[in-house]
Amino acid sequence: MLIAGKSLDQWKADYPLLNELLQLNEVIWNNPYKGETSYISSLSLNDILDAEARMKRFAPYFQKVYPETNGIIESPLSEVNAMKKKLEQDYKTEIPGRLLLKRDDTLPIAGSIKARGGIYEVIKHAEKLALGHALLTKDDNYAVLADRKFTEFFSAFSITVGSTGNLGLSIGIMSAKLGFKVTVHMSSDAKQWKKDLLREKGVNVVEHEADYSIAVEEGRKQCEKKLTCYFIDDENSKDLFMGYAVAALRLKKQLERLNIKVNEANPLTVYLPCGVGGAPGGIAFGLHQVFGEDVHCYFAEPTHSPSMLLGLMTNLHDQVSVQDFGIDNVTAADGLAVGRPSGFVGREIKPLIDGVYTVDDKRLYQMLRWIYDTERIKLEPSALAGMIGPVITADPVKNRKGTQLVWATGGSLVPQNVWEEDYRRG
Ligand SMILES: *Cc1c(COP(=O)(O)O)cnc(C)c1O
After folding, report:
1. Domain holding 188: CATH number?
2. 421 and 349, same structural domain?
């Protein structure tokens, strides 16, 4: 049986790392394509600034309907020294520089990194509709969008998304708040509490027996039949990507406030959990625009779902799934359980990122326990894929330096009993 035209043995011969990957061992893939200039992106810093300006226009709206946001959906950046010591002790290593945690687990509204991209794409669509129907101008105070006139207007339109969980939460909650009719297609193994929470908010949740990619396809087909339906495609969406990328502009300011310089002598190394690629990809793209060569990004995937690694290494991107290679895509990290990566994101980040590594589920649970024991922070399994990164890349010989930043991607909406179960496993 051939995989994209080659036998498995041929693939293994061409990419020896596949032997490890297929045995579900933890691996690190150092990106040989970094710095390659053959691919010209159509996206630029201007696109990020445009997204940031749109978010600013919506600030009065967020202030009104979610006062706890103060008009901005952003998370704190904090130093986790006790966790750093724990990692150094248990892994008998020395992590260079300060260890920072980006607390996207605390992002308002959706409790995960998806609050960046998902909410952005929904507000962009809402703005386009309201402007297009001459109900709004860009100079208006967007707090009016909370008025009945607008929720009634939006109720004539629908939004559909396919999701392993958190994207559905973010898009479902925001769309319903604006007044849209919203449908979230999920695989039946999606976490029960996420489905329950969405239904509570008035979202139509459709469950599918087959896996995530099939759920997305199903969602797209049903939506495309209707003119008033807008499909959010997390495998190809530039809007999601830009919503994530804005994080880089804000991170720059947060680092400045902590008096952390990022330059050649003090590079910034960032560890990002990766599913389909949009969130880590958008952030890596933004960071590269902001910090250039002084930032290093690593993506982290579960050993059972190394889809971005496979897509990048083989250059097949979305033309290949982990299942094609006999990997099952079953992991407790539901936010990362994606068998086929985004081709759009893969091509964008291929010349930018330093590498991709994989993590065993057992280690995710272990880290989940440690981050609570040392820092009293409660995260979901997906959010911990980045945590081992500073250990993996620590290298006394190469004498790595600079600041280490682990992106904690979700957790605050996880029900206490679900989190306790995860903690016990750790
Ligand atoms: C979705 C998600 C990610 C990864 O984002 P992708 O865009 O799918 O790569 C990481 N962590 C959590 C908690 C998520 O929900």
Report:
1. 3.40.50.1100
2. yes
In the numeric block, the tokens 């979230």 are attached to: 184
Contact 136, 159 (CB under 8 A): no
At 312-370, the pLDDT tens digits run 999 999 999 999 999 999 999 989 999 999 999 999 999 999 999 999 999 999 999 99
C-beta 277 within 6 A of ligand 1: yes
Residue 94 CB coordination number (10 Å): 14
Nearest CA to ligand 1 atom 10: 273
CA 259 to chain centre: 27
Determine the residue of 114, 121, 186 to mutate for testing ligand 1's pocket, defined as the one with the most ligand atoms within 8 A of the Cβ atom: 114
What's the domain range around 279? 8-41+72-108+242-425
Is ligand 1 within 6 A of the CB of residue 112?
Answer: yes
Among the candidates 204, 238, 272, a domain finishes at 238
Give the domain-ending residue among 238, 262, 290. 238
Ligand 1 pocket, residue 409 CB under 6 Å: yes
**Does residue 122 fall inside a structural domain?**
yes
DSSP result, 100-131: EEEEGGG-TTTSBTHHHHHHHHHHHHHHHHHH
342 CB less than 6 Å from ligand 1? Answer: no
How many domains, the chain?
2
Asked whether residue 53 is domain-assigned, the answer is no
**pTM confidence score:** 0.96
Q: Are residues 220 and 137 in the same domain?
A: yes
Q: Is the CB of 116 under 6 A from ligand 1?
A: no
Q: Is-contact 285 349, C-beta < 8 A?
A: yes
pLDDT single digits (tens) 371-408: 999 999 999 999 999 999 999 998 766 667 899 999 99
CA distances from 57 to 50, 53, 79, 198, 352 (A): 11, 6, 31, 27, 31
Distance of CA 42 from the midpoint of ligand 1 (Å): 24
What pLDDT is attached to residue 67?
96
The protein residue whose alpha carbon is closest to atom 15 in ligand 1 is 335
